[in-house]
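Bug: token stream looks shifted between consecutive jobs. Job 1:
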Amino acid sequence: MKQELEKAINCMVVDDDKVSRSIIGHFINKTDYLHLSHTCESAIDAHNILLKDHEIDILFLDIEMPEMTGMELLQTLKNTHLNIVFTTSREKYAVKAFEYNVQDYLVKPINYSRFLQATQKVLERIDSGNQVHENTPGFLFVRANHKIVKIDPKDIYYIEALSDYILIHTISQKFVVHSTMKGIEKKLESFKDFLRVHRSFIINVLHIDSVQDVNVSIHGKSIPIGRSYKNQFIDKLNVL
């Protein structure tokens, strides 16, 4: 049965074994809600792609690879939003693997049924992580501190990425919410005063104190403006 999602979940397969890449790629292609974005035969190639492509949701990652192992790759990806599924021929890494907060650990040979179990775990995480609720006119509702809190968007200074969470800085307090920047950005589309200025920051332009070089100051916080967001930022300000 087809999974009902707004869009397919983007996947990357990283494995130095061609057959293993082919099998996982085949499983992804036959699953309606998954999309195979990239396949890599080395962790180094994967690292270079991940630096540029921030739309990948699931990383199917082998552990034992030459030059850079799967675990070494994860060490370079701090504060990543990725859902990690290890694919390996050895069970001995299982305990160590879960120190990296992986979603699942698949031991080769992998069958389709076991593959689907892993992807369902990821879907559950995505669903539970989408803790920013639908807006009612003029307000934003988030789940924080074991309750749903109503926030007036005008009171938000800025939003900051924090590993698998986001930190919403408001006039009165801070809210830690289990969500992604992409998720909160979508929820804020109806509020015209919010602008993504960096992969880790969304700001409320109403609270800008000043702009200098490639930084914007809000309530004493200096926030960097990412190169790819700079033109959009300048257009939004409509500077004279």
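Job 2, same session, no restart:
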Amino acid sequence: MSADPTTGLERRCARLRELHVPGDPLLLPNAWDAATARAVVAAGFPVVATTSGGVAAALGHEDHEGAPPAEMLAAAARICRSVDAPVTVDAEAGYGMEPAALVAALREAGAAGCNLEDGDHASGGLREPARHVAWLRAVRKAASEAGYGLVINARIDVFLPAALAGSPEGVQAGLLAEGLERARRYLDAGADCVFPIALWEPGALAAFVRETPGPVNVLALPRAPSPGELAALGAARVSYGTLLHREAMARFARDLGTLAAAVPPT
């Protein structure tokens, strides 16, 4: 009798969920293809996370759902097949898919978890909270009905515009109430973890972690506290997003420049 292929996936889902420990954060250096995913595991990290920006760039597309969903999901499946470790997939804002279809696609790909963000790429703003809560609840319901322990990391984009604008410290603190309200509602809707992406102000970040009734994922921005400091604040997960992909591509460009200077292309 052949083994049930879902058994291994459920084991990976459970492993990913149990690694979310406040004060002892899961470190996630995000990968963008099978080779980088294997490198993450070879370095000793227990989980692979993907970066939509890196995956989209490798496929020749822009981030923020600029790539065809089928291509992104196929890339996720290749990454999942390439490693014997849980993989959490950056599924952006769900690609406009209905919850049941999205859950089925993630399960088919072999994803143990996923990021789902509340940014609205069509409008450039945020999804209305009640609408996003209902959508997250439907995603959780679809996964539960399928017997699929998908670990949902609900990304909160409230703090992102200020960070991208290079706003001084103090601006994000004024957004804390809205961020916390969304975090509580997303957790209540079935999310396992919340991700206030680009929240870096130490005081606001400490308050967010302290007042959120569930695990918190923090992006390791250069301006953010160090991973050790984030652990002390009670973070349960620290990820690197597109940072490693950008560094790798910058290094590649520098090396190409050195080669071109030494041996000019004919």
